[in-house]
Amino acid sequence: MNLLRTKSVQQLVSESEEQQTKLKRALSAFDLTALGIGGIIGTGIFVLTGIGASNFAGPALVISFIIAGLASGLAALSYAEFAAMIPVAGSAYTYGYAALGEIFAWVIGWDLLLEYGLASSTVAVGWSGYLVNLLSAIGVNLPAWATNAPGAGGIIDLPAILIVGLIVSLLTVGVKESKWVNNIIVVVKLAVILLFIAVGTSHVTPANWHPYMPFGWGGVMTGASIIFFAYLGFDAVSTAAEEAKKPQRDLPIGLMASLGISTVLYILVTMILTGMVNYTKLNTSAPVSFALNYIGMHWAAALLSVGAIAGITSVLLVDLFAQTRILYAMSRDGLLPPVFSSVHQKFKTPHVSTRLVGLVVAAMAGFTPIKDLAEMANIGTLFAFVIVSAAVIVLRKTKPEQRRPFRVPLVPWLPLLAIVACLYLMYSLPLLTWIRFVVWLAVGLIIYWRYGSRHSLLQKGENGRLSGDKTMGTDPQKGGRGAAR
Predict the structure, then answer these.
(1) Terminus of the chain with fewer CB atoms < 10 Å: N or C?
(2) Rounded to two decimals, what is the model's pTM?
(3) Are 404 and 85 in contact (CB under 8 A)?
C-alpha cells in the first residue's frame, strides 16, 4: 500500500467532469469575491474583536489583525496558484493529493472537516448572541437557558441550532440560489460596517488606546492566533473551484480581492472600536453594537445588529458550503463512504453531505461555548495553510512543466515565509487546543487505516493495473507482454 500515491492534475480535472457527480458551474469572479468577503467579514468583526481585545491584545489587536492578514496573504498566494491550476472541489485536500500524496490529503481533509465544522459552530453562536441582543433592545427577552451552551450559563443554544437548519435548507436547494442570497447579504453588511466607521470615528477617545499593548507582545501573537480563523473565508473560495465559470482567471481574483478588502475593514473597525470603548469593557459576544449603545447611539446599534445578523449569516453559509464540498471530494475519491458524494438529481448539490454537516454543526453550536470552538478552529486553519504552502514548493519541483495560470512569486521563499508565520501562530495557541487537535488527527488516521486506505479509488486503480500486468505476463493465452514474447 503506497501512502504517498498522488493524483495527476489531469486525473483530478477529468474526475470532476464525470456526469454522475458533476457540480453546476454558476459562479463569476464577482460571486467568488463576494463569497470570500461573505466568509471573512462576519464573526471576526462582529464577535471576536471584543474577545480578542479584552482577553489577549488590548488596542494592539490592530497589530494582531495585520499579522494574521499578512500570514493569510502569503498563504492565499499558494491557494491562488493551486486553484487556477486545479479547478476542482476540495481546496487544500485536493492540493495535498496532487502534490504530497494520499496520506497527506487525508490528514488535511480530516483537518478541514474539523476546521469548518468548528468555524461554522462558532459563527452560529455569534449569530445567536446578536439576535438575543437585538430582541432585547425591542423588549423581547429570551430565557438564558435556551440561548446559551451548558458551559456558558444555559442548557442549549436554540437560536444557533435554528440558523444552521435554515442555511442547510438553502444550500440543499442549490448554489445559484445560495450565491444570490450571499451577494445581497454582503452588500448589507458592508453598508453597516461603513456606517459604524462613519459614526464611530467622531467618538474615538485616544486615551482608550493606552496602554496600547497591555498583555505584551505575547498577547498580540495570541490574539492573532485566536482571531485567525476569521480569515478562513478565502479558503472557502477555493472549495468552490468546481462551480466557478472561469476558474483559471476568476479564482485568483476572488481569493486576493476578498482577502485585501476584508483586511482593511478589520483594521479600521478594530481601531475605531477600541478607541470608542476601553478594551476592558469589550468582553461581549456583540462588541460593535455594545460600543454604539455605550456612546448613546441606540438607533445605530439596532441597525448594526440587523446588519451583523445578516453578515454573520453569510459567514455561516460560506463555511457550511465549504465543509460540504470537502466531504464530497473525499467521498468521491473513495476515502469516505460513497453516499457523501451523491448529488441530488434536481438541485445538483451534495445533499446528503449537506444534511450530515448541518446536524453535526448544530449539535456543536447548541452545546459548546464560543471560546472553545474558536480556539480549535484556528489551529485547523493554520495547519491547512502550512500544508498548502508546502505543497506549492513540492509541486514546483516534481511537476515544473505543469501549466500554471497564476504563479506564486519568489518560490520557495514566500511559501516558506507563510509556513514559518503559520507555525508561529500555532505555537501561540493554548496547550489544550493542541491536545484536542492531536486527538482528532489520531482518530482520523484510524478511520483512514480501517476504511479510507482500503476503499481508495486510486489504490484500487493501482492494484488493478498491477494485477492486470501480472496476468498478462504469466498467461500467454490472454495476450499482453507474455504473448508478445
Answers:
(1) C
(2) 0.76
(3) yes
